[in-house]
Write a structure and sequence with these properties.
- With 313 residues, the protein is an alpha/beta fold.
- 42% of the residues lie in helices and 15% in strands.
- The protein has a 6-stranded parallel beta sheet with strand order 2-1-3-4-5-9, sandwiched between helices. Strands 6-8-10 form a 3-stranded mixed beta sheet.
- α5 links the parallel β4 and β5.
- The chain starts with 10 loop residues before the first strand and ends with a helix.
- The mean pLDDT is 97.
- The protein binds guanosine-5'-diphosphate-beta-L-fucopyranose.
- Guanosine-5'-diphosphate-beta-L-fucopyranose binds next to α3, α6 and β7.
């Protein structure tokens, strides 16, 4: 696939560089001939339009990777709907509009696989968007992310902006959030298995029934795909970014226990939500460009556990 946008000599703002995805994109861009711009929360509040526009006017990025978002697992999404809807709407509206105002050549907006209907066909194609009701536990975040996709498309349609969107599946990896209330399932199970092993507990408890299926993409593979899309894709349609197959949560719990070295039982807390029964993405548009993920789930869990251990010793 020919290069649609060259990074050579360009100033690339990674918005959300301290988050798991943003940090992985910064790592991936280190091998490119470009200047990476970052702005921490203390320096720039993305919820404030005037601050975003002042920063853009002063720093004039040529490209923007919009990885900044308020993210969380199923319980956090279900517990704080106003935060997830408001903050994600503000961040994307402020950054996308400022990118248009200050002539950014290329912007990549990051969404999530939860934008699709709860009972979408599996694997989920990009055109399943808005064809059915969303999963209630994360509809707030999903609506914000759908608005972001549409905003990027609107600026392309009305102003000819080369703004694209990528919809990653569930991500995990170094720099993940391991807080048991707000995290996603992979870091949560890594921490639970680690603490159960250390305490000699006879079992660890997973949320829900363990029967939902999830697809998981290692964050450094995601970052590589994002840079690939930034440089090779310029289109109206958002692009699914998946791994290619999925596992049940119970299979995941057993895999994490084996890798962490926890040998106890797995118990299920049916008072917690299962969420969407399955959300395996159809990533054939991306694989048609020649991109493939490199990191298997077991290898990615091992790498994530190693990063957890080095951060918690
Ligand atoms: O990763 P997770 O929180 O988010 O949950 P979703 C995935 C599945 O793992 C759900 C189960 O069925 C959970 O019930 N699970 C089992 C656990 N044990 C645990 C645990 O200890 N912690 C967590 N967190 N889950 C998210 C959306 O949905 O997907 C986000 O809420 C985002 O907004 C993300 O879109 C990609 O996959 O259900």
């Amino acid at each position: 696939m020919p290069e649609a946008f060259s990074l050579s000599g360009k100033r690339v703002w990674v918005a959300g560089h301290r988050g798991m995805v943003g940090a992985a994109v910064v790592r991936r861009l280190a091998s490119e001939d470009c200047e990476v711009l970052t702005a921490g929360r203390a320096k720039l509040d993305l919820n404030r339009q005037a601050d975003v526009e002042a920063w853009m006017a002063a720093n004039r990025p040529d490209a923007v990777v919009l990885a900044a978002a308020k993210v969380g697992g199923i319980l956090a999404n279900d517990s704080y709907p106003a935060d997830f809807l408001y903050e994600n709407l503000m961040i994307e509206a402020n950054v996308i509009h400022a990118a248009y105002r200050f002539g950014v050549e290329k912007l990549l907006f990051l969404g999530s696989s939860c934008i699709y209907p709860k009972f979408a066909p599996q694997p989920i194609p990009e055109d399943a968007l808005l064809t059915g009701p969303l999963e209630p536990t994360n509809e707030w975040y999903a609506i914000a992310k759908i608005a972001g996709i549409r905003l990027a498309q609107a600026y392309r349609k009305q102003h000819g902006c080369d703004f694209i969107s990528a919809m990653p599946t569930n991500l995990y990896g170094p720099g993940d959030n391991f807080d048991l209330d707000s995290s996603h399932v992979v870091p949560a199970l890594i921490r639970k298995a680690h603490e159960a092993k250390r305490s000699g507990a006879r079992s660890l408890t997973i949320w829900g029934t363990g029967t939902p299926r999830r697809e998981f993409l290692y964050v450094d593979d995601c970052a590589d795909a994002l840079v690939h899309l930034l440089t090779h894709y310029s289109g109206y349609q958002h692009v699914n970014l998946g791994f290619g197959d999925d596992v049940t949560i119970l299979e995941l719990a057993n895999m994490v226990s084996r890798i962490v070295g926890f040998e106890g039982a797995i118990a299920c807390d049916a008072t917690k939500p299962d969420g969407t029964p399955r959300k395996l993405l159809d990533s054939s548009s991306l694989s048609a460009t020649g991109w493939r993920p490199k990191t298997s789930l077991s290898e990615g869990i091992r790498l994530t556990y190693d990063s957890f251990l080095s951060a918690n010793i």
